[in-house]
Amino acid sequence: MDTLFHLLFPAIVFIIAGVDRKKALMLAPVALIPDLDIFFSAHRLYLHSILPLLAIVAPLFLLSWKKRKYLPATALTAGYLFSHLMLDFFAGYLAFFWPITNMGYGLMISLAASQHSIVPTIQFAVHLKRELIPFPNIITDAALISPASTMLLFMLLVLLIIQTRALNFKK
C-alpha cells in the first residue's frame, strides 16, 4: 500500500463516521508511523506488529484516562495506527506477532469473472497467506502515490467541499 493511501483512506472513513474533519486531518499523519520501520531495514516487521503498537497506544490511553478530554484524540490515534496494519494485511504480509516470530500473514481476496461459457460465472476466493519476512528486508520499490491514492485524494476534496457547503447552508 502506498503512503498517500495510508494517509487518506482512514481520514475519509473517520470524516464520514462523523469525526471533526480538522481533528481527523490533523492526526492523519499518525497512520504513517508503522512505515518508519523502513529506516531500520525491516519493513513490515517492527512497527507492523500488534505488540509494538500496543506498547505505543496503551500508555497513551492510560495518560488520557486521567484527562478524559484527550480520550477521543487517543482513540483516533489508535484508529490511525491500526488502520495501517489492516490495509497492509490485505496488500501483502505482516509480522503480526513480532518479536515472537517474524512469520508474515496476509489475506488475499479475489473476485474473478469467467466468460468461458454462455453464462458468465463469478468466482470469489479468500486465501490466508503465510511467508517468513526476512531480515534485513530493504525495499526498493516504495510508492508514495498510486492511481488509487489519486482517486482517494479527489474523494477527500469532494467530501470536504460538500461538508463546507453543508455547513455554510446551515448558517
Note poorly predicted spans: none
Q: What integer is the average pLDDT?
A: 85
Total count of strands: 2
Instruction: Kindly give the count of domains.
Output: 1
Question: Helical proportion?
Answer: 40-55%
Shape: globular
- Output the number of helix runs: 5
Q: Report, as a whole number of angstroms, the end-to-end distance.
A: 40 Å
Give me the secondary-structure category. Answer: alpha+beta
Strands across the major sheet, in which order?
Answer: 1-2
Radius of gyration: 19 Å
Strand content: 5-15%
Reading the helices and strands in chain order gives HHHHEEH
Largest sheet: 2 strands, antiparallel
List keywords for this structure.
alpha+beta; 2 strands; two-stranded antiparallel ribbon; 171 residues; 5 helices
What does this structure look like?
- By secondary structure, the protein is α+β, with helices and mostly antiparallel strands.
- The chain has one domain (3-170).
- It has helices at residues 3-16, 21-27, 50-66, 71-89, 147-170, and strands spanning 103-114, 121-132.
- It has a two-stranded antiparallel ribbon.
- Strand 1 (103-114) and strand 2 (121-132) form a beta hairpin.
Question: What is the fold's blueprint, element by element?
Answer:
Blueprint: H1 3-16, H2 21-27, H3 50-66, H4 71-89, E1 103-114, E2 121-132, H5 147-170
Antiparallel strand pairs: 1-2
What would you say about this model in short?
By secondary structure, this protein is an alpha+beta fold. It has helices at 3-16, 21-27, 50-66, 71-89, 147-170, and strands spanning 103-114, 121-132.
